[in-house]
Task: structure prediction
Amino acid sequence: MSQFQINYLGCGSASPTLRHLPSCQVVDFRGNLFMVDCGECAQLSMRRQKLKYSRLGHIFISHLHGDHCLGLPGLVSTLALTGGRDGGSLTIHTFREGAEMFRRMFDFFCHMPPFEIIFDIIDPQTSSTIFENDAIAVRSFPLYHRLPCVGFAFEEKPKLRHLKGDTVKFFNVPISQYQAIKSGADFVTPDGQVIANDRLTTPADRSMSYAYCSDTLFNPKVAKSIEGIHTIYHEATYCDDQTEKARLRFHSTASQAARIAEMAGAEQLVLGHFSKSYHNEQRHLEEARAIFPNTVIANEGLVLPL
Amino acid sequence: MSQFQINYLGCGSASPTLRHLPSCQVVDFRGNLFMVDCGECAQLSMRRQKLKYSRLGHIFISHLHGDHCLGLPGLVSTLALTGGRDGGSLTIHTFREGAEMFRRMFDFFCHMPPFEIIFDIIDPQTSSTIFENDAIAVRSFPLYHRLPCVGFAFEEKPKLRHLKGDTVKFFNVPISQYQAIKSGADFVTPDGQVIANDRLTTPADRSMSYAYCSDTLFNPKVAKSIEGIHTIYHEATYCDDQTEKARLRFHSTASQAARIAEMAGAEQLVLGHFSKSYHNEQRHLEEARAIFPNTVIANEGLVLPL
Result:
């Protein structure tokens, strides 16, 4: 199993259909689950995709339309019933008015969860780090929808270089210095000889990154916010036949999503949030690939290792 | 299609499983849909079972546990988006505190539905008619759960007798009297001869009835409330192996449900609200049938014509 993979739980837009559930994804980073949006039926999809409730520590809500957050009270109720977080806490990252509403709903429907629920307030106007540990950082950045809306970038921190076992042994490097050398330091032998780091190590594995661009108008500022990200998820509610509708409803087309991925220098694009007016996503795929070839279509059950 | 049939959308208990969704049923009476409880994913199940949103005029909420009502904001959002009620209203029958909470959630998540949402307040302590038209009445009655909870009885009104065409013609009965005769009146000929009603008509079809007994402790008072009802749905969260757990959690076992059906003189029993601790409902069925033979197990997708 990859150390960093994305599970797609809901890829539809406002009205669920028989093909797509409302928005929900789970970023699985080294076994810790980060949910991004929580549309209705999210708890059921977690079961279906065998994602353990106990590993879910953070939920990030992009905006306060029902199709992006109405799975929250049910999920939190079930976490409360099942013991959920193994005594850990659950942090919900959302705007201030979302925190107030969700708190009210939890108080009403989710009696005494045996874990702490923390609300972390997101400022929708700025790009800022909202979660961070030794290995990964999550940043929110503004999107351009009918109401305040943000995307989320998951950026793995620089990894350690790999020691060359034989060379390290040859120079009798003490174990106490391994960490510094893996971080890039040279080694100085007892007699003062400097052994350059690249003789002792091979390069670190690449740090991966993923950006979630939820509901938004096409806007080059989005590309700027996620420049250099490896894999971009971008909503593609419509195709070129409904560009005007996309604009009026503050949504994007598949080809607009592809242009954002191209501008941001991404290596991979994932499309989702499909309007119920399409019976399949062949057209989304073709129109996006004409601009950005490495495009995939999300669907419920897709697991994408980065 | 039967004129009176029950669609089962969710037959699980508090934690949804891969086999069962949270509580939701739709009574289809002559094409008008009455939803009973509205667990998460109700709107999706309606689509799956091809139940038209536009025919849904009433939603009855038995109690305010999340697994019985958290599908409401999503369903109402979708009704608002799709135009839903064709200009008609949607009435939600619930307790006062439910109405306050749902109103708040709708105001937040469901922008400007193009139909009126009416809250009809149920008194959980009394048995009373909460909806009525020419053909059917719906009555709520107390159940015995951890918090206020009611069941619902759908009772078709007495139907009209059938005219015997030949006899009616023989006596030259004027059309203006048909309705009175179908309702049971005798006919008096112009020369004063009284023609008894049973010479002019055959008996009316039987009026059918259905009772929904949501979460409740075993209590003979429930049987009293639904005496004479044709088909009873009764929760059967547990089997005899967990009778004590049922009592502690204010739930019933399958055999307790069967005893209620027997005491009430029902003709048919439907079991639902199954605990996730059972991998199938064979045991529920056997234990109930030992007491009340005409028992069926509800499942998602079951359509039961009365």
